[in-house]
Structure formats: structure tokens, C-alpha cells
Amino acid sequence: MPGETRLQARGRAGRAGSLCRSHRAMLLAVALPLLPAAAAQAATAQTTTSCAMREDLTGHPDVSWADLRAACRAEQQAYEKDNPVGFTWFANAANGFAGVPYVVLRVLPDLAPDIWGRPEDQFSRFGLFRDPDEPNRPLPRGLGLASTAGRPVDADGQPTAQLDFTQRGLHVVSLSCGACHTGRVQVNSRMEPVEGGANIQFDVRKWREAFNQTVAGYLSDPGKITDTARQVAALIDQKPEGYFYPADYFGKAPGYAHFSPAVEAAQRDAVKANLVPILTGLATGTKVRGTGVELQLRTSYGNWNAPGLAGYSTGQQDGSGDLIAQLLATSAAASGSFDPAKFLSTHFEEMPPFATNTDIPSVWNQQARKVGQWDGSVRMPFWRNLAAQLPIVGQADKVDLHNTGIVANFLHGLPPTPYPLEVDMTRARRGETLFRDNCVSCHKPLNDAVYGRREIGTDMNRAEVLNPPALKLFLAGFTAACHDPDFRYTDPAGEALLPCRMNGADIIADRTRPDTQGYAASVLDGIWARAPYLHNGSIPTLRHLLVPSERPATFLRGAVSYDPVHVGWTWEVTEIGRVSDAAPTLMLFDTRRDGAANVGHDRNVVVDGKLQRLDWSGPENAEALLDLIEYLKTQ
Q1: Hey, is 98 helix, strand or coil?
Q2: Cβ distance 192 to 174 under 8 Å?
Q3: How much is the pLDDT for 47?
Q4: In sequence order, which residues have a C-beta less than 8 Å from that of residue 388 and are 6 or more positions away?
Q5: Using H for helix, E for strand and C for coil, what is the string for 469-500?
Q6: Alpha carbon distances (Å) from 212 to 209, 217, 298
Q7: Pairwise CA distance, residues 303 & 504, whole Å
Q8: Is the model's pLDDT at 387 over the cut of 70?
Q9: Rounded to whole angstroms, what are the CA distances from 595 to 199, 321, 327?
Q10: Residue 391, SS3?
């Protein structure tokens, strides 16, 4: 994208006029200003308390948590208001231009409710939920709509909207960043969003498995495809006018230009006229992806104690392991004649011999993180996003690079959601000193160190996922996904970047040698919402992290109710009856499974010649433990 000054000037000029022009103005202002207007107003309005005070609680002895929490909430809300395009694209913009046709996806619950749930459930059985900011949105938070024609752009190649309804092209759905990175917490009887936090209920593998089940039941051969096409066409015809494209949403929601009721008729007709090839293509692509999963089951997830996949990955993914298998399968299918049996009988050096499940991470405040990914292998925020988009979209040349840059800029300064419950500030101030004495040496902003088995002792499966052939495969996949060498965007510092001209270590660091393998230690902002802990989510609460002897072998994952004493989501197995109604993807996590060990961060260490306490067990540390936990709630 062009330079920041030009973007801001054009953004100011475009604020008046049509929906398309106003959205364009917001898009052109994607380079984040240093002091957003709403943030400045919030700071002026709160002269006595600011969110920055949580960085020095001792220096502000009279500030209450209620006031500090309100200030932090106001800061986050002001940031979202000042960056409306970044926020809406992060939440709901499709990651690419390949996916399931929107009209088809909307009737899958009618076709196969046993697989997809009821139409009114909005795919909640997979851990998705109705958008908290747009309750009339016909898709849940995290399912994005795009056109196969690509984004509408102006003469300078800059996007003017997420979707311009005057463009030709089929409307398709794929996951947005918000699917994995918008969490929720249940406070009393209400649900509150955690923007940029992990969706601890989303099971992306269960989502993908639903397509496998649909293909097996309805699209497994040409005869079934023809029969299913007739059923789908009839279901489309049964829906009332405005069912797919309600005017009260698409005519008003930001990001959509030139909507008219004629859009629905055109999309219905386009889908029905091409249902057999559409469903054939869906079946073919799903079978290729499914063959990649089968490869994992025979290798990485073939050990006697391997964790499950679909239905056993709540709030988790295997970003690297899944992508390796998918890239291998996609490459084998590129010739046009894919033989699953031959593919599965081939030995692939790239495949790791063990499971590498990881938790979905929080993504806020990227400005404080010099490296990304659990192993610290990706420096540039643009490439961190692209690495996540590629396995979602599946086709490298269909990845939306505009989305990559816009969301990278938005996440640069997105504040974490403050802890929603009460805090004992007397304890928290005492805990602040303990944190500075024992934690900040590693958990500090812009720390790019990687801590290996010897330093920290955590399960090393994820850190060891890449060997040289797999690294080569990743680099080829990432560079293919950055498919426009002339694509440029302006980062928050005002620097115009050409990411698709980068290569090698500028994209991903070499983590194939033992001396380079380990895990990054990030700042602990929003740490209350980042449970379960460690890269593999094997420790349910902060207390269990700090008192290793109390770590449970099994615990619940997928509840959104909160445990303020231990500090984490409801985890005790005995609570299953109480939380299951609000937890459609609730599962039992077993730390005895491959890659799920709850070891590490469990012994005191020496950093820069100073002893750092990581194990707070024992009665002699009981009060200090409570103080430290209370302080961590405030961050």
C-alpha cells in the first residue's frame, strides 16, 4: 500500500458519500495512527485512571481494580472504534477466495442436520457462535464471505470493500481470523467477547471432519452427487426471499458495497445452474484434504498414545503438522490425477513421527512480540498471518494478501481484554514485586529468545516438528501463498513493505537443529484469558502452572465459565454436568497422550546469574503464590 500520509489524506476525503466510498476511506486509513482520536478522548475523559497504570500498581496505591478495568475496557473499545476496518476484517473477512459457496453452506444444516446441526444454531456444535457485535449477521463470528472474483480494488490496487455486489463471481465462505481468535467468557449469566483471545471452544478439526462426513454420505460417487444436487436445489428454492441475503444486514453492515435484493436471485441461480460441478469440486477437494489427515493418522498420530483428532481438538490445532500433510497432499493432487492409495503408501521424510498439537494462541498486542509462532520461528507479523491463512484457504494462489496486511496492522496495537472479575489490589501490589523478581527476565516485551528442553523442560514435540525437508516444504508453500511480488502494504510505523519479495530466514527461521529448538516466552498480557497454559494447553490454570505438584492428569476443555481461584476456565471433571449445556465441544484432555505432557516450567532456574522461582509449591510460599496470581489477573 502507498505511504501513510497519502492514505490518511485519501481516507479523510472519502468519509462522505456512499457506503462504498466511506468503507474505502476506512480501508485507506489502515496504517494505524500513533494516537487515535477516540483513544485520545478516552484518555482525556479518564484523567485519574488509565490502563497504563497496571504496569506500575505499586506506584498508584489508590487506584481500584474497578476503575482500572474500566479504563482498560475503554482503551480496547476506543482502539476498535478508531480502527473499524481492521476490526471488521479481523473478525469476519474471509481469508481467501476459495471455499464453500455461501448459498450451499447455508442449506447444509437442512440437508444433514446430524452433521451440521440445525439451521438456527449457526454451526455452534463446532464452537462457533453468533457475532456479539452483529447479532443479525446470517453467519456466525469467524465465517467470512468473499467473491471468487477477489476483492474490489481501486486504480491503485487498494481494496474498497470486503465485497462489492456489482462484481461478477460466486460468493464463497472460508474461516476468518475471528473464528479461532475471538474468545468468550461467561460472567454471571452473560457472555462477554474476548477479542484477540483464543476461541477455546472451536474445534477446527471437527469442522473439517464435517465436510468428510458430508462427502461420505452425500457426495461419494457421481450418482450420489446428482441426487444431492437435486436435494440442494430444492432446499434453496424452499427458502424465502431474503433468507440468504437479508437487506437489514447486507444493506447496512460495513464492508459491503452496492447491495440490492437482486443479488440473492443471481447467486441462487448461479449456484443451482452449476450444482453438479460445485459439489464435485467440493468432494474432490475434501477427499484430498481427508487423505492428508489419513497420512497423519498413519504417521504423526499413529502412535499407541496419540491424541484424537476431530472431536478431541477443542481450542487446539496442529498448525505445523496439519499444514505439512496438507501441502504434501495438495502437491500430489496438483497433477490432476490423484491416487490416494499411492500417496498413502509413499514415505514422506517431511512428516514428524509424533503428534504436535498446540493451543490456539492469543494474538493481541503484537507490537510487544518480536517473534511469532510458539517456537519463535516467524518474525514479521505479515508472515505470521499468512502461515495461518494458507491451511485455511487450501489454495496458495487464492490467499487474500490484503487481509493479511490489514489484520497484521490491526493486531499490532490491539489491547488485551481486561480480567472481568474482581481483584484484591493489596495482594496484587505485593505480587507485582514478586513478578519483577522472578518472571520479567523472560516474560518481557520483544524477547526473541527461545527456551529449550534444558532451560524449561516442556514437551518438545512442537518445537521439533520441522526437519530440513519440512522447512523446505514450508518455505515453498509460504512463498507460493504470497503470490503477488508487487503486493505492498504500509505497516504501523509508516514503512511500505513488499513482503512477497522476501525469502529464506526473513520468512521463517531455521528451527531444524536441536540448538535452535524450543519455545518463545512472550509478555503475559491478558494472561488470565490464555488458559490452558504452555504451548500444548496441558495445564488448566495459573495455579497449576505455578504449583506443579497439583497439576491434574486429566481435565475439561471447552467451558467458558471461569474459575477465579485457580485462574482458568472451569476444568474439574466433576463440573461436567454444570457446564456441558454451554459447551458444545467439551472434551476431556489427557496429558498422558503424545505431545500433551504437562511437564516444564516446574523448577526454579537461574537467569543472568539470578535465581528465578518457577515452583511456588509448599506452605512457605502459600501467601506469595496468592499474591502473584492476583497480580497476574491485572495484566
Answers
A1: coil
A2: no
A3: 53
A4: 95, 177, 180, 319
A5: HHHHHHHHHHHHHCCCCCCCEECCCCCEECHH
A6: 5, 9, 18
A7: 33
A8: yes
A9: 21, 12, 22
A10: helix
Query: Nearest CA to 412 among 49, 171, 87?
Result: 87
**DSSP class of 190:** E
Torsion region of 183: left, alpha or beta (phi above 0 gives left; psi -120 to 50 gives alpha): beta
Distance, in Å, from the CA atom of 368 to the CA atom of 74, rounded to the nearest integer, reads 20
DSSP string, 495-564: -EE-GGG--GGGTS----SGGG-SEE----TTGGGG-SBTTTT-B-SHHHHH-GGG--SEEEES--BEET
- Write down the pTM of the prediction: 0.91
DSSP, res 136: T
Q: Percentage of the chain surpassing pLDDT 70?
A: 93
Taking alpha carbons only, the member of 189, 66, 184, 182 closest to residue 634 is 66
C-alpha cell at 513: 537443529
CA–CA separation, 354 vs 301, rounded Å? Answer: 6
Positive or negative torsion for Cα 612, 616, 621, 622: positive
Q: Report residue 374 as a C-alpha cell.
A: 510458539
- The answer to whether 247 and 261 are in contact (CB under 8 A) is yes
Residue 587, classed as helix, strand or coil, is strand
The whole-angstrom separation of Cα 415 and Cα 635 is 11
Express each pLDDT in 423-451 by its tens digit.
999 999 999 999 999 999 999 999 999 99
Query: What does the alpha-carbon distance between residue 251 and residue 44 come to, in Å, rounded to a whole number?
Result: 35
pLDDT digits (tens, 9 = 90+) for 77-121: 999 999 999 999 999 999 999 999 999 999 999 999 999 999 999
Average pLDDT in the chain = 92
Category of 276 on φ-ψ map: left (φ > 0), alpha (ψ -120 to 50) or beta: alpha
Torsion of CA 570, 571, 574, 576, to 10 degrees: 70
Any residues with CB less than 8 A from the CB of 335 and at least 6 apart, and which? none
CB 551 within 8 A of CB 543: no
Q: Smallest Cα–Cα separation from 279: which of 193, 214, 339?
A: 214
Helix (H) or strand (E) holding 425: helix 425-438
How many Å apart are CA 325 and CA 95, to the nearest integer? 20
Strands (E) across 264-315 are located at none
How many CB atoms are located within 10 Å of the residue 361 CB? 21
